[in-house]
Amino acid sequence: MSLTHQNDDDLMRELINDPGTWVVVGLSNNTARDAHRVARWLKHEMHKGIIPVHPDAEEVDGDTGYASIADIPDTDVKVVDCFVNSDEVGAVVDEAIEHKDRLQIDAIWMQLGVSDPAAADRARKAGIEVVMDTCPKIQWRRLRTMGAHR
After folding, report:
1. What is the mean pLDDT of the chain?
2. Domains in the chain, please, with CATH?
3. Sheet holding 79-82, edge to edge
4. What's phi and psi for 16, nearest 5 deg?
5. Largest CB tally within 10 Å, which of 61, 77, 148, 150?
6. 61 and 39 in contact (C-beta within 8 Å)?
7. Which residues, in sequence order, are CB contacts of 76 under 8 Å at separation 6+?
8. CB–CB of 99/105 below 8 Å?
9. CA-CA distance, 39 to 111, in Å (whole number)?
């Protein structure tokens, strides 16, 4: 599949630099997973609130975990960060769209290697911004070298 989506530097900069809360779908206590490392970076280096979402609903790094986006209590969510396979991300995006207004979701961020153009189109039509197939930590470093971070 050829990826035709082009991520917007200004959007990524805004999402990374905003102090808002990130829902991290696929986050567990498995410290060997990228989701764990990126969530710790978001929380401890970028000072974001983190809400873990994983079927096991584990507490991670002191943050209460939920089995699904639907289970998250009303709060403002800046980003739903998706650490799931591309073939599973559409369901995550659809759940985020369903709860967009209640959780005030601004964006979906599909991690490196995760892409679903049809799901991205659905999110955009619902008024949710999309970043696809990249990692915020990688983009922060890249944007920083361009003199574009806080």
Report:
1. 93
2. 9-116+128-145 (3.40.50.720)
3. 50-53, 22-25, 79-82, 107-110, 129-131
4. -70, -40
5. 77
6. yes
7. 20, 21, 103, 104
8. yes
9. 12
pLDDT tens readout for residues 45-71: 999 999 999 999 999 999 999 999 999
Residue recorded with tokens 């983190």: 50
pTM: 0.92
Q: Residues 6 or more apart from 85 whose CB is under 8 A from it?
A: 114
Give the dihedral of Cα atoms 50, 54, 94, 142; nearest 10 deg.
Answer: 50
For the stretch 88-110, pLDDT in tens is: 999 999 999 999 999 999 999 99
Which pLDDT value is given to residue 6? 85
Measured CA to CA in angstroms, residue 144 lies from 7, 41, 131, 141 at distances of 16, 15, 18, 5
Among 30-39, 76-85, 141-150, whose mean pLDDT is lowest? 141-150
